[in-house]
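Cast an eye over my tokenised protein here and flag anything odd:

===
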Amino acid sequence: MKLRQSIYITALVLSFGLAVGCSSDDNGTYMDDEMMMDDDMMDDDMMDDDMMGVDFTGTFAQVDHLGRPGINTTLSYDMEGEASVKDAHNTTIPSEMSAAFQMGFQARLEQYHDVYALKLGLDPADVNYENNILGLDAATLTTVLAADVLEVAPDLPTTYFNPGTDLDNDGNILVPDGDEVALTGRHPNDDIIDVSLILFFGGMEGDRFSGQDLDDDGMADLPRLTSDGVGLTANISTTFPYLGAPE
């Protein structure tokens, strides 16, 4: 019995460590007093030596979401009254995220294209975000990504993006035509950062800015913006907690 209680308490402590930060001076979104754990919520038979050293006092605050890693870093921008948009985004409840951050995310996405236009010696007015492989315009894409939550599609595979297998044999697997599955969750093997960059800079075919050599001189004429250049090499286990061997 005591061993089972120890396992229960250890799991409880770990789950709190993953989900919240504990500090007396956190300034995030706080849990209501009724949600705080106290002695009255615990059975008497749990209050034995196993509880010694476990301190649940303090103020619990939401510090991160990580539904879509890197989005609030890549699309961060200056926001009045906030020292860090990333921190503000992480401490905002999902239902309020799109309204608070979508416009700033879209402006930053468009600004990136202006910067790359200038680097290429082009008029920024001629180099704008292009609807991506999912057919999403800039406003729709940033509305979806601003809410740092993972949608679940019960009747589709769980994946961040799977271009599909050309089920209709039209030769297209990236152009949205019913073959692709996207943003229906996350699989441990999904390369979230590369997919996000493809959605930002890949255009309709997914390779708009992929370091192309346009004049065949052996030098890239376009920037490589659709990948961070880091591939997944770990062998991820198929059972919880889905870890890979250290490399």
Summary: Residues 1-42 have pLDDT under 50 and may be disordered. The longest strand covers residues 21-23. The chain has six helices and four strands.
